Amino acid sequence: ANSVQDEGYFMPMEEVARRTQEAVSLGATEVCAQAGLPPGMEPGLYEEVAEVIKRAAPGIHLHAFSPEEVLYGAKVSRRSVKETLLSLQAAGVDSLPGTSAEILVDEVRKRLAAARLSSEEWRSVIETAHEIGLPTTSTMMYGHVETPADMAVHLDILREVQRKALARGGPGRITEFVPLSFVSSEAPMYRLGLLPNCRPGPTGVEVLLVHAVSRIVLDGLIDN
After folding, report:
1. Is the per-residue pLDDT at 5 higher than 60?
2. Helix axes 81-91, 45-56, angle to 10 degrees
3. Among candidates 120, 125, 112, 32, which has minimal Cα distance to 71?
4. Strand partners, 31
5. What DSSP letter does each residue of 119-156 carry, written as one string?
6. H or E element: which one contains 106?
7. Hey, CA dihedral for 130, 114, 190, 202, is it positive or negative?
């Protein structure tokens, strides 16, 4: 890492449990946990995190592990995505955050972070989660190098995924859509000038338009 701001670290499991209990004492009903992609990670780390949280607060809703983490966990443990999701579910995961979606257009994704999961891999993890009864959220990060056409493709993919989930029935579906503004001050690729023609985030008008168009496109499918 080039600076303290860029460094990662392991949080002791005792601290994970303490923070969970503290959250419950303050009235929390849900904990969101995302553990990152630690190099050399031991198989089962994600399951251990889930189990620690559930032991600390058995009644808490555990919203945990992005599609990218699920894919990484599957690779490390040499299991399929479905086997990994079933293992996480058994460890206490109640729903998955639909983060790491960014923009579901691979040309854009290659510019943002070529080594990360593809659009199809993101979709596959989300749809597999739905198949085993795990609900997920969905996201879209905008205000960087994407075009309006790219955002339209992204929203259409979410619409297709949700239609498939609703046709199947059961709890496995997208519960909400979260538009995420690109925060350039927190993005090393922007701060260091590594991404040519990258915008510093959306304008206020763009934020309003994205929310309005998303409500129209997802109407009757994703309510929140």
Report:
1. no
2. 20
3. 125
4. 62
5. HHHHHHHHHHHHHTT--EEEEEEESSS--HHHHHHHHH
6. helix 106-113
7. negative
**Tokens, residue 178:** 């979260």
State whether residue 219 is helix, strand or coil. Answer: coil
In the structure, how many helices (H) and strands (E) does the chain have?
A: 9, 4
Residue 4 has pLDDT above 60, yes or no: no
Q: Which residues contact 67 (CB under 8 A, 6 or more apart)?
A: 96, 98, 99, 100, 101, 117, 121, 122, 125, 126
Measured CA to CA, the distance from residue 221 to residue 217 in angstroms comes to 9
Q: What's the mean pLDDT in 212-223?
A: 97
How does pLDDT run across 122-164, given as a tens digit for each residue?
999 999 999 999 999 999 999 999 999 999 999 999 999 999 9
Q: Which pTM value belongs to this model?
A: 0.93
Residue range 40-63, pLDDT digits in tens: 899 999 999 999 999 999 999 999
Model confidence at 172: pLDDT above 80: yes
Question: Closest Cα to residue 65, out of 57, 74, 56?
Answer: 74
Are 31 and 20 in contact by the 8 Å Cβ rule? The answer is: yes
| Residue given tokens 């960087």 in the structure block | 144
> What's the rounded Cα separation, in Å, for the pair 72 and 159?
26
End-to-end CA distance of the chain: 38
CA 125 to centroid of chain Cα atoms: 11
Q: Which residues pair with 64 in a beta bridge?
A: 33
- What CA–CA distances, in Å, run from 130 to 5, 170, 211? 35, 9, 25
